[in-house]
Amino acid sequence: MISGEEYKHLKALRIQKGERICIVNGKGLSAFGFVKGISKNYYDVKILNFVENLGEIEKKVDIAVGILENKERYEYAFEKSVEFRISEFYPLITKHTQKLKIEEERLLRKGISAIKQTYRSRLPIINPPIYLNELMKKFKEYDKVFVFDLEGKKFEYSDFDSTLLVVGPEGGFAESEIKSLARRKNVEIVKICDYPLRSETAVVSALAILTNQFNQM
Question: Which of the four pLDDT bands, split at 50, 70 and 90, describes residue 7?
Answer without folding.
Answer: confident
